[in-house]
Amino acid sequence: MCYHEPHESRTMNDAERDHVGAGGGLSTAADAQRPFSWHDVRSLLRRREIWGAAIGQFAGNSTVVFFLTWFPTYLVTERHMAWLKIGFFAILPFLGASVGVLFGGWLSDFLLRRTGRINLARKLPIITGLLLSSSIVAAIYVKSDAAVIAVLSLAFFGQGMGGLGWSIISDIAPKRLMGLPGGIFNFTANIAGIVTPIVIGTIVAITGSFYWGLMFIGAVAVLGAASYIFILGDIKRIELSEAGAAGRIS
Questions:
Q1: Which H or E element spans position 142?
Q2: Of residues 102, 106, 95, 163, the one with CA closest to residue 129
Q3: Which GO terms fall under molecular function for this chain's record (predicted)?
């Protein structure tokens, strides 16, 4: 696979190039020389849009980490499934997540085409997905193995829809500073990768049950939905002062 910058493309027409440029997607020589700056980090961290998206990403990734780390152990110790049965059942939630990723992207594009409202098109699929992820707590109360897997598949399907958060980052990132917001966004996802296994492991070790572990995942998913609703605000490109950056580049 090869990659080149939009301005280097031999197949892009002028209309496409203008569209990419209007969205801040065309780089220049000055952009390539722009060094990492803690000033830029602090400026971004003062923006509610970054915090709203980052908390939402932490919440969504917490569900992923549960499935990647504690899911098989949960089926064995809490649901008493045989390892042979787990081998089949463990596939289904991941299939659900894969479908959720595709469905969330399709739904967002559909809503944007039909309404032209980017807030609705981006937020509705993600918030819906996070609320579906919170349904993981229902696994505590169902009895049959099939019902448990159905609940977990629905929760992971919802998390897949939440993968649309990267579209929000591309929509709000300042022009000429596209990578740093994504780095902050992904940083919070990796914090979830550290925190979630430890929290669930500690809960299981203390209580001998996954009850509060699943409650934790459900509560964090609701927190993520609330973050997109109340903290993120309108989805629009962040405008940062170029004065400090210009001085460092020259």
A1: none
A2: 163
A3: transmembrane transporter activity
pLDDT in tens, the chain (250 residues): 566 667 677 777 888 777 777 766 666 555 555 677 888 899 999 999 999 999 999 999 999 999 999 999 999 999 988 876 777 788 999 999 999 999 999 999 999 999 999 999 999 999 999 999 999 999 999 999 999 999 999 999 999 998 889 999 989 998 778 789 999 999 999 999 999 999 999 999 999 999 999 999 999 999 999 999 999 999 999 987 654 444 343 3
Taken in order of first residue, the domains within the chain and their CATH numbers are 46-249 (1.20.1250.20)
Question: Under a CB-based contact definition with an 8 Å cutoff, are residues 164 and 122 in contact?
Answer: yes
User: Among 89, 239, 59, 249, which residue's Cα sits nearest to residue 158?
Assistant: 59
pTM score, two decimals? 0.85
Contact 44, 184 (CB under 8 A): yes
How long is the chain? 250
> DSSP code of 78?
T
